[in-house]
Design goal:
Elements: E1 5-6, H1 17-23, H2 25-28, H3 39-59, E2 66-69, H4 72-86, E3 93-97, H5 102-113, E4 117-121, H6 131-137, E5 142-146, H7 160-169, E6 173-177, E7 196-200, E8 211-215, H8 230-233, H9 241-279, E9 283-285, E10 296-301, H10 306-315, E11 318-319, H11 335-339, H12 344-347, E12 350-354, H13 361-380, H14 383-392
Parallel strand pairs: 1-11, 3-4, 3-5, 5-6, 6-7
Antiparallel strand pairs: 2-8, 7-8, 9-10, 10-12
Helix pairs in contact: 1-9, 3-9, 4-5, 9-13, 10-13
């Protein structure tokens, strides 16, 4: 096989060389446990504080508001479960949307079994929540609104500032899953009225196994992992010093390169969208055309099975996906695509391609050329497509 064209950066990204370089000494040289009292180890406490500060600066947050976790899923679980427990005396109602990542949806299902009431907001055909429905869903016992910043499948960016403002007007906490957005779009937790925010290192050219939860000072949520006194007694467990160095370096790097990097990604994204729409008939762009992550392209192709599409692309050295990597083993169509109104048969023929900083225009053209050929070959084997064409020619 020749060159691999990797277009699945929403699933994970290549760890940047400068991130790896920054991490290496903390595996082999400065490997002490930060909780130990002798100087060799305790020096790593200051290292952690320094990288915590780097992340806080990217968000416009305070250093002490950043809590390190094992990744986005843990951060989401912590935000929902610990908030539900801490504010249960005020109420047991939570509002979220139907297109959240399963780390949110499955946690909400868990809380429902514990006696909490969850409202799942609809979205429009582009994946955007209705703010009027959000307002109408608020009750006296509502304690938390959790709406993702940007969707991991279709790339739609939510009206986060407006959602946060509505939450605060009603004295409700606002959490956002920003795993796909952090490092891709500017985020100010104060300007956007965010109380809690989840992020993950491996989505922004950092390492896997490390993430963080931003918790605004004054939010009274409890520990999620019990044991030691790490993370100011809120998240037990020996600190992942190399991972913290990695995510801190990656966050600083992402902020520094964001304007140029995402500008390039938008150009390539729009070039890909334009070519597909012009050259492959009977396709549909999923997600909002403008309020969209810079690197996200998601299409549904009629009369095509997404799984077959992925296999044939893979045979040509092209890596893409049909949706979230967390549900890749499922035969069911994407809950996100169903929520935006696609019928099952069209949702099954969907393809997500997410660009990265290494993607070139030549890569995009190679992929679109391959896609044209593959889609046509698959349609030629489809009785449904044959019937459709016959009816069109009548």
């Amino acid at each position: 096989m020749g060159k691999i064209i990797y277009l699945d950066n929403a699933a994970t990204t290549r760890t940047a060389p400068e991130v790896v370089e920054a991490m290496l000494p903390y595996f082999t040289e400065n490997y002490g446990n930060p909780s130990s009292i002798y100087g060799f180890a305790s020096a790593n406490k200051e290292v952690i504080t320094g990288y915590r500060e780097k992340i806080a600066n990217v968000l416009g947050a305070k250093c002490e508001e950043i809590y390190f976790t094992a990744g986005g899923s843990e951060s989401d679980n912590w935000a929902l479960i610990a908030t539900a427990e801490a504010y249960a005396s005020k109420g047991k109602h939570i509002i979220t949307s139907k297109i959240e990542h399963h780390a949110i949806l499955h946690t909400c299902e868990y809380l429902e079994k514990k006696g909490y009431d969850v409202t799942y907001l609809d979205v429009d055909e582009y994946g955007i929540v209705n703010l009027e429905q959000l307002k109408a869903s608020i009750r006296e016992d509502t304690i938390l609104i959790s709406i993702m910043f940007a969707n991991n499948e279709i790339g739609t960016i939510q009206p986060v500032a407006e959602i946060g403002e509505i939450a605060h007007e009603h004295g409700i906490l606002f959490h956002t899953d920003a795993v796909q957005a952090f490092g891709q779009v500017p985020i100010s937790v104060d300007e956007l009225h965010i109380d809690m925010l989840s992020a993950s290192g491996h989505k922004l050219n950092g390492p896997k196994g490390i993430g963080f939860l931003y918790i605004r000072k004054g939010v009274k949520i409890r520990s999620f992992i019990h044991g030691g006194a790490q993370e100011r007694k809120r998240r037990a467990g020996t600190e992942n010093v190399p991972g913290i160095v990695g995510i801190g370096t990656a966050a600083e790097r992402a902020a520094r390169t964001m304007e140029e990097r995402t500008g390039k990604e938008k150009e390539l994204r729009d070039h890909m969208i334009s070519r597909i729409e012009a050259e492959i008939p009977y396709c549909r762009l999923n997600g909002d055309r403008l309020r969209r992550l810079p690197n996200n392209v998601n299409f549904s192709f009629r009369f095509v099975e997404g799984e077959s599409l992925l296999i044939m692309l893979d045979m040509k050295g092209i890596c893409a996906s049909s949706g979230s990597a967390c549900t890749s083993g499922s035969l069911d169509p994407s809950h996100v695509l169903l929520a935006i109104g696609l019928p099952h048969e069209i949702a099954h023929g969907s393809l997500r391609m997410t660009l990265g900083e290494d993607t070139t225009k030549e890569d995009i053209d190679v992929v679109v050329d391959a896609l044209k050929e593959i889609v046509q070959n698959l349609r030629n084997m489809s009785p449904l497509y044959e019937d459709f064409i016959k009816k069109q020619n009548v």
